Amino acid sequence: MAWTLDIAKWADKALQHANKNCCDIVEFVGTESIRLTLNINKGGYSKGHIANNWRVSGGGPDITHTPTGDMTGSASLARIRAFRLSKPFLGKDDKVFITNSVNYSYRADKLGWPNGPGTNGWTWKNNIGAYGFTGIAINNMRGKYI
Fold this sequence. Notes:
Oligomer: single chain
Strand content: 5-15%
Helix content: 40-55%
Distance between the termini: 38 Å
Largest sheet: 2 strands, antiparallel
Structural class: mainly alpha
Number of domains: 1
């Protein structure tokens, strides 16, 4: 009987460890994405809108949108840390989604903006290249965890 309890304790400890490691990776990638979003302000246009809309969810993407900006990224950081408290990976084989529902976050990350008038009424004074924050965050995670 003691042997069975030892196995159960070992399995529980392994599951706790796996949950912690997965949460560490999610928190690192999410935090890096926020940090890189805030630090890369190539055109002087950043108002914290993208930084305020990072979401982490399990099972399916969270497309919730917050219309206000937050130059500290604190609301997004709080959501990412709250995700950890839900123990999302403990005893589960789940997917995780790190999303940003700002309608121009993809453009900021992957495409950039050409010189000239934008669709939102702004006129871009320079050709602003893609920020690349998600790719950089993933590469930074690989360097730390893989």
